[in-house]
Predict the structure.
Amino acid sequence: LFFLMISKYVKATNKLSYKAMCNYFRIMRQIDQNESGINVYNDQRFSVLNGLNEESSVEEFLSRVNGDSFLKERYNSLVPTFLENSLHTDKHYVINLDLLEKSQALKFTVLNQSGVLNRFVSLDNLLPMTFYDCSFYQKRPQWEWPVYIDEEMVYFSRFTESFYLFDKEGSWVDEGVGHPLLSIDRNYDEYKWHDSYRMF
């Protein structure tokens, strides 16, 4: 009986996982990754990394990091976060954010241990989260957040179950922040998100 119950659970879980995966790829096909975006957030202190992407070599990335005193210090302070990402919860440190108006999605440029990556998230799948929700989500001990992380600007992707973190000293661009697609009324539904989707 026990093994029968486990079997039914695994089949149900696999079915849900497959459905989520299909929905993810359906939405990703709707996002034009080459669309010119409207800048929402940037941090000019990382401008030395401009031009790098997933196809850039790790050697080129580390060379630029080690050649800039601020970048080297910031990279080293994020090593615990990089380690947590490889063990359990994905938490991405954002250095640039663009709104893709036609695709109704956001393009996050994030820093990880081996380079600069672009992450695309549909607006319908992005939730504002509190610092405490993010902390409780992984349900295990974790390193303290660096003091420069803005605890009031934490966002969560439902599909990839990833958190996006911003720097307190980064710059928010009025044109992007004030865009109708990013309005509070359109994107924030406390009952929909926080009463039906629990972190713990």
